[in-house]
Amino acid sequence: MKNIFLFIRQYFNFLSFLLLQILCIVMLTKVSKTHETFFGSTVFEVTGYFNSRYANLQQYFNLKEANQKLAEENTRLRNALGSNFISPDTSLINFTDSSFVDTLGRKRKFIYLPAKVIGNSYTLQNNYLMLERGAEQGIKKGMAVIGPSGIVGVVVDMSANISKVMSLLHRNSKVSAMLKKDNTTGSIEWDGADPSLLVLRNISKSAKVVKGDTVLTSAYSANFPSHLMIGRVASITADPATNYYTLKIKTATNFFTIQSVDVIYNTRYNEQIELENRNQQQ
Q: How many domains does the chain have?
């Protein structure tokens, strides 16, 4: 309180002048329509400016909630895709399946589970993401992870509530991919150089590939559903010693800013992996 009185005492003349100025402006606008219109428009302009800035600031702080709602809506829409279901083979025998079934009697093959990214690296040779969703929330090893714009990686470990994802930006990461326009398949890897560029190998030179072509996941992956976005062709290199191209792919996923993902559960993953491993042992 003492400081307030000292402040008023120190700046008494200025504060008195300011108060009298405000009083004069108020009285002037009361008796003059011209001045009332002028000062009224000025006040509206000033208050409008500050209201606009306040609205922008409020909108910025609401972005987190808006992004969360969008992520939940994306998950809901992805789970509703018809490509998540497969038609049962009824030619031999009917059997009971505990998987989800849609109104057409098709079995659900893929289930999308939303998760928040709580850790992410992209400057190392072997990069990982950490998700705030673990075994108690349905996460298992081998599950694919997809972001808002494209695929992200594969779950390699988890605890009760946290899971670890091998990013596409990992030297051991390999994903079966294809060119969208003609389904020519190859293998997506990372050479450890640029976090925004992947490498697509084993694309036959008979393929008519050009810069800008879209690259998607193929149907040969046990982890990822087919036709998920990976990126676009950025450059093409012909290997003179083989009949294949090596393509640089601009990633659809921005690994620098990713905050939310969906983890994809393939209900037939274990069955496919078990059969593949059995065939390799023969």
A: 2
